[in-house]
Amino acid sequence: MVVKFIESTYDSVKDKLKNPFYGTLFIVWVIRNREFIFNVFFNENVNSDKRLEIIRSHFLSWDSLLSFIGTIFISLGLMVLIYFSLNLSRLIVELSERVLKPRIQKIFSETSIVSREEYQTVINQRDHYIKRFNEENQEKLRLQEELDTKGVTKQNIDGQTSENLDTPNKIDIIFFQDWDDNLQFSFKKLIAEVNNHHSAGEVEEKVGDEYVEEFRGRDLIEIYYDGGVPYYKFTPLGIAVKDFFNKNNIRAL
Known about the structure:
mainly alpha; Arc Repressor Mutant, subunit A
């Protein structure tokens, strides 16, 4: 029974000391009352009666109560100082890791480190071109159905050579009957940009987004990737139209 009581008391005291406040309070109290502790437990020149008198005078006086209240306030102030120091050190660590370190690495490793904004821009561009690539495949199916209804297939056009494109045929009837001067001029620029192996972004900037979309809608160009960079290339249908366009210098009908 006594052993269980002692163990329970010991565990309770140990748990209390693990609490930051009680642990700090205990340490501050020991430091402020070191003389009292020495006389009660370690001073061999003090007999038992004297020890009892020291204990009685220490705990039953108003000065002892005021001293204990002061110990509480000192403990609270010390805890505030400790936690402020911990958070200040954490602030310094976070500032170093998230602000200073990336800037230093960017100075010495510009080719291997990019900012979050640049990374997000590249991701957005990639998603944009993937979406357009999927839309292009759907548009191809639609255009093929349209060609089939007019009696022209991609195989028919792909099989034609520059020798048999000297006179107007099904290509100019289908593709050039609604081409105005601006569209023809843009197609000329498109041929030059694609032949010079410029990126998709440069082609769209030089030719114009609306015209690039128009040519993609007609299944004349498509996107492909080289080293992760998007480019445009002529489809088999686009190659036939390009050759016919260059050979005959097509004008709006």
